[in-house]
Each structure stands twice: as C-alpha cells, then as structure tokens.
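Record format v2
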Amino acid sequence: MNRNVYIENKPLEEALALFVDHLAACGWFEVQEEEVDIYESLGRRTSQPVFAHRSHPHYMASAMDGIAVQAASTFSANEVHPVNLSPDQVLMVDTGDYVPPQFDAVVMIEDVNIVHGQYQIIRAAVPWQHIRSVGEDMVEQDMIVPSRTLIGPYELASFKTASVERISVLKKPVVAIIPTGTELVERGYADMPPGQIIESNSRMLAALCQEWGATPLRHEIVIDDKDLIRQAVAEVEAMADLIVICSGSSAGREDYTASIVQDLGTLIVHGIATRPGKPAILGSINRKPVIGVPGYPVSAQLIFNLFARPIIFQKTGSDFPSPQTIECSLARKLPSHAGVDEFINVNVARISEQFLAYPLNRGAGVTSILVKADGVLHIPRGDEGLDAGSPCRITLNRSRQVIENTLVCLGSHDLAIDVLIDILQRDFGIRMISTNVGSMGGIVSLSRGETHCAGIHLLDYESGEYNISYLNKYLNHEQILLVNLAQREQGLVVKKGNPLQISGIRDLIRPEIRYINRQKGAGTRLLLDYLLLQQDIDRNQINGYSREEYSHLAVAAAIKNDAGDAGLAIHASAAIMDLDFIPVDRERYDLCILPNLLRPQQLDSLLTAIRSAEFKRRMQSFGGYHLEQSGQIVWEGTK
Amino acid sequence: MNRNVYIENKPLEEALALFVDHLAACGWFEVQEEEVDIYESLGRRTSQPVFAHRSHPHYMASAMDGIAVQAASTFSANEVHPVNLSPDQVLMVDTGDYVPPQFDAVVMIEDVNIVHGQYQIIRAAVPWQHIRSVGEDMVEQDMIVPSRTLIGPYELASFKTASVERISVLKKPVVAIIPTGTELVERGYADMPPGQIIESNSRMLAALCQEWGATPLRHEIVIDDKDLIRQAVAEVEAMADLIVICSGSSAGREDYTASIVQDLGTLIVHGIATRPGKPAILGSINRKPVIGVPGYPVSAQLIFNLFARPIIFQKTGSDFPSPQTIECSLARKLPSHAGVDEFINVNVARISEQFLAYPLNRGAGVTSILVKADGVLHIPRGDEGLDAGSPCRITLNRSRQVIENTLVCLGSHDLAIDVLIDILQRDFGIRMISTNVGSMGGIVSLSRGETHCAGIHLLDYESGEYNISYLNKYLNHEQILLVNLAQREQGLVVKKGNPLQISGIRDLIRPEIRYINRQKGAGTRLLLDYLLLQQDIDRNQINGYSREEYSHLAVAAAIKNDAGDAGLAIHASAAIMDLDFIPVDRERYDLCILPNLLRPQQLDSLLTAIRSAEFKRRMQSFGGYHLEQSGQIVWEGTK
C-alpha cells in the first residue's frame, strides 16, 4: 500500500500557538486599511480616529420655536408689568433657525403673547437661553471616534452631521476557499450516480467568513489532481489573505494538501489531537496562512472555528465575543478518548429547574447535526468522558431565550412530530426538539424525567392494547397525559410495482429478499416481532433482521435506493417516496406528556397545536393516517 | 400666531398598544413571504418548513479509507489465523466511495495487510461496519428546519447537501423614509450658510432598519411644503410596508405630518409622554403604519426604537432580543419630570467592584451623545428622578466585555486625552471614556472615587505651582499618582489677522470685544480669573464673561464662526482652526491617577501609552505643547 497513514497528533493549544506565532512572525496580523464611503462603513471598524470636518451646529441656532430677542431688553419683564417688544426688536425663529449676532436669547413661542402687533413677554430671558452654540454637538476637529470603533447607525449619523464623507476602516481579510475532490459536483441532479457528492463545505465556510467579517472568495471545484490543486492555490494566492483547502488534508491515496503546502511554503502542523478534525493542516504560503480542513462537514467547521476564526478576529481588530455558556446536567453517558480534545454537539433544554444537555450523534459526516446543535461540549484531552448526570458547561450557539422555551420530545418518530414542531415554532414561538430513540427509548426518557413528552406506539402482546400498560409499568410520575395523535397504517414498504411479489410477513423468510429492520426499542420492530411470534416465524430466517435503520423514511429511502427490498414502516413513508405498500396492521400513535414538567402555557399551546384544524389537514394529506381520535386524551394517569 | 401648539401627552404603553392593535386590525402583521436562492437566505427566516429533496448520502457509502468486503467472509479471522481475501473478494474504497450491494462491510486500511497480493485481515468485520447507509445524514423528505428558522451557515450547508436550491423566507419589510425640511441639505459644502443643516436622520434610521432586518427606502429631501410632502408619501406608499416622515411631527408653523396623515389615513396618536420624543406621530395610510419622528436626532432614534423596532420584529417573526441589562449606581443626581417616561443616555464603567452609570448630556440635538452612550436609563413616568448613588438598571447597547474594560477620565479636556483614548483602544484594547467637567470637576470626581483618572491644570494662586496643592487639599485616597502629560501654551485666540488688534488680557475690557469664557470649574477660567486678579481688572467689565463654552475647541470654533472675538484657550485650538493666538501663559497639564481603582494591567497600559514615542509625536504635531516632562511622575501621594 503506497500510503502514508501516519499524521501527527498535535495538542490543540500547541497547534494554535505554533500557527499564531508563525503568522505573527510573518507580520500577517499587521493592520491593513482601506478608505470607504461612510454608507459602506456599517459594521466595519475604524483604522484611524475620525475627526469632525465641520462644527455642528456651525452657527448660533435656535433650540426652540419662538422669538429671538436681546436678553437685556426683557430684564424688567414680570407678570404684572410685561415687556412689549416691537417687531423690529425680535426675530421669529423656528427650531434650528439661525440666530444673528444682534440677538442673544430665544423666548419660547408658548411664553409670548401678541397684543396689537407687539410681542408681550412676562418673564425675563436669561442670556443665551434656548440658543445652541456653535459646535454644541461636535466642534470642527473634535475626535468623533477613536481607532478600532465599530461603526453603527449612530456613528454614521455623526459622520454625516460633521461633514465626514469617507473614512479609513480595517480591511476585510479575503479568505480563498478551494473545494477539492473528484467525487464532488456543484449541484445535485436527477439520476445522480452513487459516489458523487454535492459540494457544500465551501458554502458553509464562506458563510462563516461572512459572519466573522471576512470576504470569502470561493474557487470552483478542483478534482484530486496535485498539479491542478497547486495551480488553484497559485491562482488565488495573490488575492487572498487566508487560503483554505477543503478535504485532501489526511494522508490517503489522493490527499495532496500537505505536500502542496510543503512544496510552496511551510507546513506547520499536520494532524491535531481533536475529535473530530484530526486530519487537519496548518501552514503558510508566501507569509499567508493556509488551512487544510477535513472533508467531513462537522470536522471542517470545527477546524475552521478553532483556527480560522481566532486569526480572522485578531486581524480585523474585533473583540472576540465571549462565548455564552450554560451549566447543564448531562443526559447521557459520554465516553471520550483520553489524549484528544473532543467537541460534542448537544441539544440543550430546560426541564423544570434544570438545564439538560443531550449529546447528538457524533458522526462527522452528518451536516444535519450542525443544524440541530444548540451548543458544544468540550471534553479536554485529559478526561475519559463523563457519566450521565455529570455537571457540564455548554458553549451555546443559540440564545438562552430559545433554550428556555424548548420542549423536548424523545421517543418514536412520526411525521406528526414534524408537523407539531412546525406549528409550535410558527404560531406559539415554542421550539420543540425531537430525537428518534424509539418508543421504548421514549419510555425510558419519560421515566427519567429527561423529556417533556414522547411519541409512542407500543403494542401490549397480551391485551392487544397500545401504550397504557407500558406507562403503568414503567412510569412513576404524579401526572401522565396520553393524547392520541393518529391511528396509522403499518405495512411492508416494497419497491414500486412490487417486483419480488411480496404479499405479507411470511414472504420475508425468502432468502432473496433483503429485509431492512428498525433499531432495537423501536415500536415498529416490536410490531414485527409480535407478528413473527403470531405466525411462528424464526427471526433468524429473515435476511437482514440485523440491518437497522432509524426511521420510517430511512427504511423507505434504503429500499428506493436498492439497498434493500422490504421493510416494515408507515404508509406515509411509502407514499412520500412513491413506493408500494402492503398493509399489515393499524396502530395507535400517541403522545405521552408529563404535564408537571411543562409550564401551563406550554401545555396549552401543545394541546392547541395538536387539536388545530391545520394539524389534521396536514396529517390527512400524507395518506395512511386516521384521525378520528386525534387530539383526544385517551388515558390519564395519576399517582 | 397661527399655530396649534397643543399636542397630546399619550402615555407610552398606551400609544404603543393603540398603534399595534390598529395594525393588527389592518392585518398588517400577516406573514408575507418570498422565494430566494439559498445563497441569499443567510440571516433570513424560513416562512415554510424546508424538506430534503435528496437523501444524503444517496447511496451506501464507505465511512473510511479501506476495503469493502462481505462480512461473512471474515467471520473466522483472528490474529492467529488471519483470513486472506483475494482481489476479486474486495473493493478498494476511499471515504465517501460507493459500496456496491455485493459488499456489506468496510475494513479500515490500517487493519489490512497486503501479503503476496492477498488482503490479510486479523479481525472479523461486523456487518454494516464503516458503511454509511442511505440518508444517514438526511433522508429525502425529512424536515430539515421548520418555519421561522433563522438561516445560518449550517442551515445553508444542509440545504445544499439535500439538493434544496431555493426556499421560502419571510419578506423583509420595506421602510420608506422621507426627510423633510427646507433647511436641509444632502451634504455639507464650503461656505455653507448659517441655517442650513446636513440631513443625517434618514441615514441613521435607514441603518437601524438594516440592523433590524428591514429594507430601507430613502426618499430625497422634501422641503416644508404640504403638497410636496403629501406627494412624496403617495410616491413611496405602494412600495413601502412602513412610512417614516422625519421632522415636521410637532405642531409648529411648518409641521405638516399630522395633517397629511389625517387627510390620507388615520391619525392614531399625536404627542407621546416621553422625553425626549414628545412631538411624535403614529398613524396609518392604506393599512400601513406611518410614524412621524421629531427632527432632533436623539428624539428621532428614540421614537424609532420605541415604535418601529417592535413592529418590524413582530412582522419579521424575529425573537425580540432580550435586552442586556446591568445594575449600576448612579453617579449623579438625575431629576426627571413626573408624567413622562424619560430615557437618558448614560456611560457605564466599572470602578473597583461597582458599576457606575454616568448620565450624558440630555440635549436632543446632540448626535455625538448617541455615539458615546453605552446604554439607556429609563425613568418611568411615575418617578421624579433619582438621587446620586441610587441603584439603577441600565439597558446596555454595548457588550459587557467593553464595559468591563473601560477607564474613566473625568476632568479637564485636552487633545492629549483624545490621543490617549486612541492609543489605548487600538494597542491595548482598553476603552477610555472622557467627559469634560473641568479641572475642579475632575478633583470632585476623583475625591468621590467616580473616575479612574482626571486631566487637571489648576494653578495655585499663592505658590504659582500646579495641581499638587489641590490634590493635597481635596483628595483622601491611599495612593495618588500625578503624571505630566504636557506643558501647554495658553493664550487669547482671536480671528485670523487679529482685526480688533487685541494684544493681551487688558484689551478684554474694550466693550466692542465679545469675549467667550469657559464654564465654571474649568482650569482655563481659573487662569483667566488669576490673570484678572493680577492685573486688577473687574470681570464685570468684560463683555461675555458669562458666556460659557465647554472646551478649547468650542471657544475657537465660536470665534471662527464670528459668534465672539476672543477667548482664552490652548495654542493647539487656534492652530487647528487656523486662527491667531496671543500667548499669555504656559501651564502644566497633568493626569491624576488613582492606582488603587485600576487593575495593574490597566495602569501599566496607561503609563505605557503616555510614555510612547507615538504619544509625544502626535502631541508635538499639534503645536504649542512642550513635552520635556511628559510621562514623568511629578508627584506621588500616599496617605
């Protein structure tokens, strides 16, 4: 094997220090500035102090609607003996009008009576009253703001007022991003063959650059060819302040980033002791930083956050925003490798008085995790993980407001949950997070008080009833509410036209049929087991019984993509994917709610959403749902 | 007088409720959506849930670099009896490569030995290991995000990955802004006559709209002509969701907004019990809100923040960010009118363990106050103000980080302070705020522990010495450090060419000479008094002795703009304004520092900045400064 599979395992802080010190030695952090029109300066930082070009006001101005007078001419005025001024002794002025030098006070219009063409005043004016002096706001040459000031609406207004039209600001660093990979395509298309991947990492990193005040410059996709990648680097180098090469950062057959950096500049670090993100590269070409990020999106953003963000902030003179953190209790045990700094995406929610952190899937290829994540848990490399219930500090990437108003729904997944999530967020401002842990997983989470509610469909083999016996057996809460969401049809999802002529559960023992099962604890798997038991079929006879997917749609997608031939799933999943469906059973899918864990308004909103006409209408449109009982409380438990 | 000077005094919450209820009844808050390209969706909110168009991965993909195998073919492998697979039993795969249906596991390349063309494996592969199933990340038709989701880099990447190219987002409301006023000009120019004002409010409000996620649409300036303003409103109405008319909102001779709103639609409120901001207008035209904001910038932004911001946030479905607040002690007594909700801009800084709030100038025409303000103190209309030392809660508009790292410098102003502010912010990340309260004001602030340092130049009439006797007399701190910043030339600033032939202090008694004095407590005023005393001149003989300005530059600006003929000020102010200067005295300008109130690093940074070559160079360039002693500790007091 002609591969160099060994890369370093440089500790995180050491890698960052080496990188920053190297860039400092290159003079890379030295300020670069550019002059811009003030209207383009919003959100930028001044590189020089800004001085007023003109006083404001630049003349003696009336601060009121009224009449300009000579104060001395009013000194004898009182209510008994008013002073009467003739029109040539006064000047009618509105707010902002010029007060010529012969006047030294303004009397408010409310305090003036006009009697027979004379201006009657009953109170002496104090010299300079209601007159704005030259430069009251800003004097010509006053420093309006010092260097490094973030420019917002008020700074803009001050510049304009002081006749400043152009200013010097810190230049935005240009970040060149080069996506590499022969397997990459710019966008998806019908019948995209297996092995092709839509390039999205460069788009994500470009958007992060924008958030951080840098200008992204995306190169088009370059195939895995060392010369072509080297050529792309040469193309962007002159324009860029920072070069990012996406993927190719490991040490595989077609990973060229390290050797290109070595050829063209300095390779500082190859391989960092983080998880994810290990196969990353830090280097420089022509005194400019180069970062090689791994191909997996979760790894790519982590490396970019850890290494690009701090140097961009430093170069742009921005305050590194202090991270919002929150103290949580860890919902699940979390093993970690000692020797690596691990960064785990988590959901965070408040259940009663406690904030719980729910670790998300650690797959580095799962973009959707980044969308779901509320924050990150950093396990330092000295630690070997955390037990369930451990206190932990989460660095949030969402506002605490959102976290505070989050409902947790861990259990079996159904399209009903997505509809509820959508309605709750749109109409009630409540965020609901849901992870598919199966019905039994939901029962466990409910019993531990780790979820506000759970979707469940658990058949009691003995009674033929759904859910209630499980709640009775496993839950010990003061109050339990079981609300029906829908009755749904379960059946075998098979390919369009049913080419293998599958007619029922018994067919699953045919060896040529590749079955796709659901994960342990899923209600649908329990349903299969029940059906096998009824028909006295041995599960070991089923080809694929051990092959697990985590949702109805995932089962249907696998069949559609010929990764299997049949799977037990809901009707709607077949309908959505345009597959055939052989009905097997109808089951009750309920939402079990623990009312004591919700605020009364949240409970109210949840029930209102479930009982809305829109919920029923959207469910109906999927097909295979029966909504006669939907919204009804089918059981109420109190202890 | 043909004016209607009476407008309402509607309580704030009542005005807002009337406005919002009216708009709700008009259906104005109903969602409007538009479809955009995903690359244009950053920072927007979804109006519909977004579903995946394609599974990711859309094929069975290798999760590792390695070889694809049939797991069953490896079951007997162990270290003693490795399994040898022939090339036709395996497929070499890189991460992300397609794993065809004949394989059901991937063995990592690190665990494979190639021996004589055979692939040697020493551990059994578990079925489906290192294989990413179809839709592991997202399954076709999965809901990626629900309605009302803020789109960031990770959402963008997920859309791209799932072949979503366009999405529906909430439409940005269009805010038409019409600046009105015959006195307004689009930009300043040389010899701009008195009475003309540079229009900047519309620019400020437009920038606020951008911050709040709305699209500003600025009309050009319209003169105070009812028909023309009405025509401008008609022009923008069809394009706008919200119409803002700047100034003309009061009830003066040329205030037309109220009657235009009444003619074209509904006038809801005219006059709101806030300070500033009272003469404001809320109404609607064609079921769209109209806001008439006062002409003064501080009033304009307050009314816009109070009424435009909440309706824009509500219409765009954004969470109203919970304001960052901080508990402070009020540095100065603050009277307030009962009956109005008062909003006072303040600086905030930490002195030792306490946060202090420093009320800023309450002039509504002072744009620079908005730049200086760190936050706002709201005094509800039931209250009659607050005593010095009162606890108060400030709503911050700057990060707590900046507040925490702020040095306060209350005292006499000199250009040296601006230079220090600039160097400290740029090179040390320390913000220094400075308010010119004069040297005696500085002494008072120091004695109360309300400032970290103060610029002072106080002549002791008896000893002829500067500053030290005052510190001895008034301060009682454990440690006091007096550092010289510069010696500076004080003198009479007069018009270019000295047309009145002023040669010294004695000339100031000539009645045709309009003197401009400094405020009480200013060191320069004390210097004048000392000089008058020495020369036995009666201050009442000086025309303008009671006319006060608050800085050297303000004195010079007044003279330059013919608002006066002479004033005592530093040489640099005359040099900057290109005026003549008659030297009178040289004085020592020192910075008095209370080391115990600073963190050691702050003290160190401050002294380093003062002693830098750049500080001396910049001071030298102003003219009239002598820097031999600059940076030296001229006195150290301990008690």
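The CA atoms of residues 168 and 357 of chain A lie 45 Å apart.
The first helix of chain A runs from residue 12 to 25.
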